């Protein structure tokens, strides 16, 4: 008997978790790496997420803020940290240089996710808010990993590893933070939703402040700001009439999703991309597993422009 093929819909309807204003019970302190992170209150909004399959080439880092395409690597999985930071980081650097034209790419930090959000939330239900997470999971709140200020913290922390003269030179050129997200298995659930950066106004970005205790910066929680003490991210205020959401159905390990978190170029390009994982009634199959690498990209032939 032939196996039925499950076709991904061209659009799905789901509920996304947007920023909830503090006066309505929301919080401006973010606790990544702790159980509290899954319990933070949000504003829930119904949205339509459109499938970009067949139209991938129409979506670019500089236009919408994200891109999907083939990714070549000899590292099938990431069980060995030394191999991962060696060969896999090299493959990520080569890919980002090819796609973006950046002349220098510095991997900053990575996170591996192998557990389902609901499963982990259930396992943690009796733990106190300040307990470390039992495993990293997909992030189901609409966010940008760094605000403009938070991006500078990440850059400056990483550049401290370089000679002072090189660090100062790199601070004078265009730079960006781009994440390379790759599934470790065929994705049939918890797809990544990506918002067209052009449809999100600056005043819809809400800063949330995070402090990650040193004891939580480890492989168990999977969280590391790549900044010395604190960070600042963005959540997004709901504006469902304006925001345009997309996803790439059925991603495989031979593909990568690039997500721009920050771009120092002040005009003419997408500067930040709100995103999150989402659940939908069409979800099926095994837990989504993924690896994400955060990278600093520099265009040494492009001087930094004034905002």
From TrEMBL:
One of its GO terms (molecular function) is oxidoreductase activity. InterPro entries: AsaB-like (IPR044053). It comes from the Eukaryota. NCBIfam families: CmcJ_NvfI_EfuI. Belongs to the asaB hydroxylase/desaturase family. This is Uncharacterized protein.
């Amino acid at each position: 008997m032939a196996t039925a093929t499950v076709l991904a819909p061209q659009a799905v309807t789901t509920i996304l978790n947007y920023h909830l204003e503090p006066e309505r019970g929301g919080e401006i302190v973010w606790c990544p790496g702790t159980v509290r992170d899954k319990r933070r209150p949000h504003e829930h909004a119904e949205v339509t997420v459109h499938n970009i399959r067949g139209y991938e080439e129409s979506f670019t880092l500089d236009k919408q803020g994200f891109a999907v395409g083939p990714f070549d690597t000899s590292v099938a999985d990431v069980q060995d940290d030394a191999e991962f930071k060696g060969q896999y980081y090299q493959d990520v650097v080569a890919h980002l240089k090819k796609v973006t034209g950046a002349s220098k790419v510095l991997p900053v930090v990575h996170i591996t996710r192998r557990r389902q959000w609901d499963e982990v939330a259930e396992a943690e239900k009796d733990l106190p808010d300040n307990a470390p997470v039992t495993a990293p999971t997909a992030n189901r709140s609409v966010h940008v990993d760094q605000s403009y200020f938070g991006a500078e913290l990440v850059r400056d922390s990483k550049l401290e590893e370089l000679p002072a003269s090189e660090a100062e030179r790199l601070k004078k050129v265009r730079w960006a933070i781009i994440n390379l997200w790759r599934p470790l298995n065929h994705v049939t659930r918890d797809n990544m939703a990506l918002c067209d950066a052009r449809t999100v106004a600056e005043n819809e970005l809400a800063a949330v402040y995070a402090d990650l205790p040193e004891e939580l910066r480890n492989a168990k929680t999977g969280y590391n700001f790549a900044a010395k003490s604190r960070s600042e991210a963005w959540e997004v205020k709901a504006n469902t009439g304006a925001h345009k959401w997309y996803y790439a159905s059925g991603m495989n390990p031979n593909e990568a999703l690039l997500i721009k978190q920050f771009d120092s170029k002040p005009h003419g390009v997408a500067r930040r991309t709100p995103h999150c994982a989402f659940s939908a009634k069409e979800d099926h199959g095994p837990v989504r597993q993924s690896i994400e690498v955060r990278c600093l990209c520099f265009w040494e032939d492009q001087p930094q422009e004034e905002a």
